[in-house]
Fold each of these.
Amino acid sequence: MALVSPKSRPVTHIATQLYNYAVDFSTNPKHLRWLAPLLIVADASLCALIIWKIPYTEIDWKSYMQQVAQFVSGERDYVLIKGDTGSLVYPAAHLYVYSALYYITDEGRNIDLAQYVFGGLYLAVLSVVMACYRLASVGNPFRA
């Protein structure tokens, strides 16, 4: 069933068919098997480009690494664990995750590596979400 009725002119008919194929490809659950990997590859490319081209903006990384340094040094009292942005307010899971990053990134100094780790984590989560869409037979991953 065509979403746009074809006109008598051949160019319009081709454009209408291309439009209908594009709509079908992006909304039909049977195409998600091929669309999801394409979206993930596109997103991975965009992540790499952003990390490569956009300068790093310090938000809380330095403070998190200061807090983790205190934690790995043995401090367990939340009131005493502080960084440049204040006291530690996140749960222990935050400390555990950032402790791993602390070690992986040379005590937080290798920010480029940290960005790639976060990019990989993002892509892993995106892959799980796409798999859920596919298993739920939801055709359009852009529509809520």
Amino acid sequence: EEHSRFATFIPTFMGTLELNSEPDPAAAVPRTAILNPTEAGQSITESPHAIPNAPVVEKAWAPSNGGKIKTNLAIVLENVAAPFKNPNILDVKLGARLWDDNAPPAKRIKLDKVAEETTSKSLGFRIAGMRTWQGAAASAGSGGTLKDGYRLYDKHYGRTLTSETVRQGFEDYFLLERGGVIATKSPLRIVVKRFIEDLVELKSALENEESRMYSASLLFVYEGNRDALVDALAREKEGPANGVNGDEASEEEDDDQQVPAVQGLKLIDFAHAEWTPGQGSDKNLLYGLRCTIEVLEGLLEA
């Protein structure tokens, strides 16, 4: 099947959800508006509300600052964190170039500046956010803010890291001491090795695809509750009927009998992605993948 290797790293599409039956009036185009042809998908003369010979003013791009898109329709994807008791989640944004060919000049300048000031430019990736389970003690890791037993790190945390200090971000994600190496018998060693194996497989799959993905992210998830992690690993040893990896959970499992997961890796955020036959593999994305693999491998080395 076409793109089958790549598809294993994409969250499962569950369908669509209509948020309400009536359209949002605030999102509607005013009847007196002059429509930009590139936004309306038609020429000015085709618009029923167009004013003859009226000048067309390009809508200036402005950052959304995390604002929500005004729409009544949403796509529904699988909840990658569902099989975990206390999921530790990490979002790694890939690419030194973060804008697609359709981006206006103002957006290009803004995103190039972000890349220059972060590890996006030098390493092809940056930490965009994460959360780690702390439990009642809430003492592991550093920085971030504490909430409901988790330590939360927003996008600004990742932007403070440099190519020399980015390892610290992964140390915080895996709850390691500064400069620490994961012990040979630690369950986390298994987790990191599996992440590396997944990344190598994803890299191989993308090397054989002709696509472009700008501002896509790697979503890392592993069991942050140590007892639950040990239990999930033990159930794996008992056999496939009792324990499986996060990406291989059986569709036949009942929701109230969720198979415990160890870890999972997905590629997400495809607002600026397309297949590009004849243009070769996505070197911008692949560079970030290779650098991410190198950092994880460093956590296993003395």
Amino acid sequence: MTPRNPRTHQRTVSAQIQPSDQYDSDIPLPPPSETLPLQRTNAELNLSVLQRHLPSTTSIVSVAPYAVVYVFTSTPPNGAAWEKSGIEGTLFVCRQKPQSGNGGGGERYSVVVLNRKGLNDFICPLSGDIDFEAGYIILRSTNNEDGEESIWGLWIFEEDEGSSTAGMREVNAKIIRDCAAKAAKSNADDATNGAIDGYGPGI
């Protein structure tokens, strides 16, 4: 007779994760704060990034996900026209620390566009009149070196009603206008107080 092969019994081994209280360890577990980094909100991250570009920023008033900066030119060969400045990216309306020094304690606001296409960012202090025409938020700034005025147009991307960016241009135009008006009034009041205290012009 042919000998019969002994029947082989297969054992199934299942892996199990043991609860932590079923084994001992000489290494103490670190507290939760050391194992899990604290998560920051988008607002906190945005403020941190913005402060690297404009350290005087204290808070963000408004954000537009995408904006293009145009500059108004009246020089040949195109004559009077809007031209792209080469700056486009996320737009922030931010509040800044008051300037230190005599007569410099008024409120300060700026518009910042962090450039996705180059190293030059757009930073424009807000003060005085802001126009909103043909979809452009129009700002004016004066060069501190030669006193020449520049005119800028901000085009903000927006989608149809129902999207998160609907009405973004008009909303930001109003916010920028309000911030500019606050800054102008605050600085005027501060200049008046400085003059009364003997720090301003005319004393």
